[in-house]
Amino acid sequence: MGKKAIKGLWGVVNNPVSLINVFLVAAVIYLSCVVTGVKGTSGPITLLSTTVMEPGNFTLTSEQSGDWRTVRMRVTAYCPCQKCCGKHAKGITASGYKIHRGDTLVAADKKYSFGTEMVIPGYNSGRPVKVLDRGSAIYGNRLDVLFDSHEQALKWGVRDIYVKVRY
Q: Is the pTM for the entire model greater than 0.70?
C-alpha cells in the first residue's frame, strides 16, 4: 500500500522537497526585489513587462500619477479680504503662497497635505486645484475655495458635493 499524501501547508512542511522549493521561490522573489530596486532601494525598477526604468529618467503626467477618490465634502468659499481672513490678512496662505488675482486654490484640513489636488464641481471649470491653505473652521471633510471678491464667495454659498481627491 502506497504512502498517503498530506494536503495543505502541513503536507508542504512534512515533505522536505516541497519545503526546499518554497524556500527557494521565496529567496528568488526576495533577491529579485533587492536587485531590481523594489523596497525603496535606488536601483532600477523592473515592471511586469520587460521594460526597465531607471529612477529619475521619466516623468508622470497628472493622469498617470496618484489615485483619484471621491469624497463628500461641505464646500464654502472665501476671498483674501479682512472679513474672510481676519484683520491681519496679508494675502499669504498657510503654505506661504502669495495670492494673486485670478488664483484658484483650496483651504483644507491638515489631513490633506499642501499640494493635494482636488476637482470641485462648479469651481475652476472642473480642472484640479491644489490645497494651499488652512482655516480655523476648516476641518474634517470641509473645504474653502478661494474667489477674488467677497461677493463671489457669498454667491458660492455652502455646497455639499462630491469632490475628487488625488492621493
A: no
Bridge partners of residue 118, in order along the sequence: 129, 165
| 142 exposure class (CB count in 10 Å sphere: 0-12, 13-18, 19+) | middle
Q: Which three cell numbers stand for residue 108?
A: 483644507
**Does 1 fall in a domain?**
no
pLDDT tens for 55-81 read 443 343 444 467 999 999 999 999 999
Close Cβ partners of 57 (under 8 Å, ≥ 6 residues apart): none
DSSP symbol at 85: H
Number of domains in the chain: 2
Are residues 73 and 49 part of one domain?
no
What size, in residues, is the chain?
A: 167
Whether the Cβ atoms of residue 44 and residue 36 lie closer than 8 Å to each other: yes
Q: Residue 163: in which H helix or E strand, if any?
A: strand 159-166
- Sequential DSSP letters for 34-69: HHHT-SS-SS-EE-SSS-EE-TTS----TTTSS-EE
The widest CA-to-CA distance across the chain, in whole angstroms, is 93
| CATH number of the domain bearing residue 99 | 2.40.40.10
